[in-house]
Amino acid sequence: MCAAVTRRTERRGSGSIWGVLLLIVVVAAVVGPWVSRNTWVIWLAAATIVGSGALYLWIRLRIRRTARRRELDLTRSVAMTDGMTGQQFELWTAALLRREGFTDVQVFGGANDCGADVVAVAPNGARTVVQCKRYAATRKVSSPDVQRFAGTVRALHEAQVALLVTTGGITTPAADIAERLGITVVTRPELMEWAANGKGPTME
Fold it and tell me: Which of 43, 50, 160, 184 has an alpha carbon within 20 to 30 A of 140's alpha carbon?
């Protein structure tokens, strides 16, 4: 099955939850009377919890901001992709999409992706499926590449927008097929413009 189509869900047993609830009841019964005579303990515990929570949120925010700035810097240059593996390029493309306002961005690249390397929701709400081709600058996407992507992108992934992103070029026959099938192709020059200036392709 395709990783982007089928997701596994895990169910957790409820036995451990009842055990925790029972423990809470027992502890409350034992320490409750003492705490009621020493209310300062409650205030101290509350202050500790609030302070710890605020510190945790502040640290998480700083980490996210730092990661976000680094991600923005990395997605500014297509030259960064020249030494990447295919999987690294998929992650880079996902970061570029997030930078441009796409949400729910997920990377599924691999043997079982069925053509969907990245799946995301566009700013206008359209389900977007992306295939990434980390090619040399002189290598071109061929007609079979486009046809294979077209065969799965809507039938299996129910994509409203089909996007093929490559660090190389595309042959004229492949570009014609992509246009007829409604697949947006981003080649290296367009990708450079998108990464550097935020001028992404028109996707319909």
Answer: 160
> How many domains does the structure of the chain reveal?
2
Residues 26 and 89 in one domain: no
- Does residue 192 contact residue 78 with C-beta atoms inside 8 Å? yes
